[in-house]
From TrEMBL:
Swiss-Prot/TrEMBL GO biological process terms: DNA transposition
Ranges in coiled-coil conformation: 59-86
Protein name: Transposase
InterPro entries reported in the protein's UniProt record: Homeodomain-like_sf, RD_transcriptional_regulator, Transposase_8
Keyword Cell inner membrane appears in the UniProt entry: no
One GO MF term attached to the UniProt entry: DNA binding
Keywords annotated in UniProt: Coiled coil
Top-level taxon in the UniProt lineage: Bacteria
UniProt entry tagged with the keyword Cell inner membrane: no
Length: 96
């Protein structure tokens, strides 16, 4: 059974960001936020591990799909340019 946190997700994200961007000690930030310093340390460690692990598999799948689609768009743009030039060439030939 998972415990429901008494802190909203956005609060935790903001607290982690504050720890990462501040030069103040973690204990001081925890005290100012009214959070146990070990709780805050745990949040920071979990966030660091998640960042080190990289994006989740579905994020990688989306990134791979975006890369594939960008390549396809570039190829289609080249084909369109070739067809545009060919159409201009044949239009000139028809005018002769």
């Amino acid at each position: 059974m998972s415990r429901r946190s008494k802190y909203p997700e956005q609060f935790r994200r903001d607290a982690i960001e504050l720890v990462n961007s501040s030069d103040r000690p973690l204990r001081q930030i925890a005290r100012e936020l009214g959070v146990n310093h070990e709780t805050l340390r745990s949040w920071v460690n979990v966030a660091k591990q998640a960042a080190d692990a990289g994006p989740p598999a579905e994020d990688r799948a989306v990134a791979d799909e975006v890369t594939r689609l960008r390549r396809q768009v570039a190829e289609l743009q080249k084909e369109k340019e070739i067809l545009r030039k060919a159409a201009a060439y044949f239009a000139r030939e028809m005018d002769r």
